[in-house]
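Page 37, continued from 36.
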């Protein structure tokens, strides 16, 4: 079977199996994973015959995708803010909508005279995509924190691969592993309700439950605790940036105001939904 024929057949099976909506793209990426040929090379070698070993590999990869395993877990990486991050089933897969959080922090710091003296902590860091991206964009000092030791190993791998500067990695619950004060706290914490966890797509159900369940009936138990802890872990005039569900954004904003934050704002994601809530701690 040729490269081109396999892509068409793979896309056909994915469509028939109601797996996502990007069937041809998925087929192309699976072919690249099995052969090492990128998009351009696949076009140039469209009639190249696949070897028996490559066909066996592709069959295994296709079976995984037909089971709704996310492409990021199959490939072992996810592109985020124009960088490639290693991911596995111990970490949440970085979403495009989370780039809204990055852009919000960049907008907040754009008028700072310099950012290389700032220190930032990414709480519930998972793969480290948020914190590492901001450290690279702003040349600031970075701390990554997560309760999961397996997630921290993924973050450590990404930090070593992408960053020249060293960062600090802390294992523990929210801000409890540190007594430091930070200029910026960022977090995409678990915030789904238990009911929402039951309603997620087949792809999302592959992701770690620990990274999804925000606890409590409203999914905001962890966010409430993080906001309360942040008041003693931010420097004078420091800021916190939180991702949440659009159905929670206004309540999160109220929580920030109740804990002495001002300039409290809500930013919408690429779909026009409330996604990021942030505020500055009163001095």
């Amino acid at each position: 079977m040729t490269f081109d024929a396999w892509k068409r057949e793979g896309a056909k099976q994915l469509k028939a199996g109601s797996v996502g909506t990007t069937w041809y793209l998925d087929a192309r990426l699976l072919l690249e994973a099995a052969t090492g040929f990128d998009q351009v090379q696949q076009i140039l070698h469209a009639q190249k015959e696949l070897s028996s070993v490559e066909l066996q590999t592709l069959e295994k990869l296709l079976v995984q995708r037909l089971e709704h395993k996310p492409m990021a877990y199959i490939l072992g990486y996810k592109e985020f803010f124009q960088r490639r991050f290693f991911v596995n089933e111990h970490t949440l897969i970085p979403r495009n909508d989370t780039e809204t959080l990055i852009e919000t922090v960049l907008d907040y710091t754009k008028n700072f005279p310099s950012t290389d003296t700032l220190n930032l902590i990414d709480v519930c860091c998972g793969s480290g995509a948020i914190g590492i991206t901001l450290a690279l964009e702003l040349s600031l000092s970075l701390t990554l924190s997560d309760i999961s030791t397996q997630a921290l190993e993924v973050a450590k791998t990404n930090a070593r691969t992408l960053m020249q500067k060293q960062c600090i990695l802390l294992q523990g619950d929210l801000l409890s592993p540190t007594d430091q004060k930070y200029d910026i706290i960022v977090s995409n914490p678990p915030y789904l309700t238990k009911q929402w966890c039951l309603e997620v797509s087949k792809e999302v159900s592959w992701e770690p439950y620990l990274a999804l369940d925000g606890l409590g009936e409203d999914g905001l138990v962890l966010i409430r605790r993080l906001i309360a802890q942040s008041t003693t872990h931010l420097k004078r005039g420091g800021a916190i940036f939180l991702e949440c569900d659009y159905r929670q954004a206004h309540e999160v904003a109220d929580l920030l105001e109740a804990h002495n934050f001002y300039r409290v704002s809500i930013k919408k994601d690429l779909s026009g939904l409330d996604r990021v809530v942030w505020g500055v701690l009163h001095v």
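The first helix runs from residue 3 to 16. Flag for discussion at group meeting. The CA atoms of residues 207 and 255 lie 28 Å apart.
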